[in-house]
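Hey L., structure's done. Input below.
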Amino acid sequence: MKENNVVKSETKDALSFGSLSHTAASSSHPCDRVSCRWSNIEEKQALKICQVSENLSSLVQHLAWLTWCKASPEVTDQMIEQAIDELLDQNHLFYQRDMETMTVYQKNFLIAVANGINSGLSRREVLNEYHLESSANV
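Output:
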């Protein structure tokens, strides 16, 4: 049931974006053992979780969960940063596997995009700088 931006559930954890309060009616949650419940997260912090996760629902949920497990009861920016580090660590092997299957051109293309080259990727200067050889590799 959803009322005033608050999701309520009697059997599942509930989050509300706004003041973002959290309650856990179920004791089966893994981090219940360490008494980790947040009562407050600032809107800018909730937005950071969404932005860092690029609004991909599974990543938002995972990062929010990792942050929630650290909250006692307030969420701090440092907790979010720690949760981001944990998420990256947990997925490191997947990223590594993906990188191992890429060609040199694909890796160089990703480096160009990561360096902010969003347009003009087929320009000769960009092709030379990132060792992409030809526009067919873009």
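Residues 102 and 108 are 10 Å apart (CA to CA). Residues 1-36 have pLDDT under 50 and may be disordered.

-- N.
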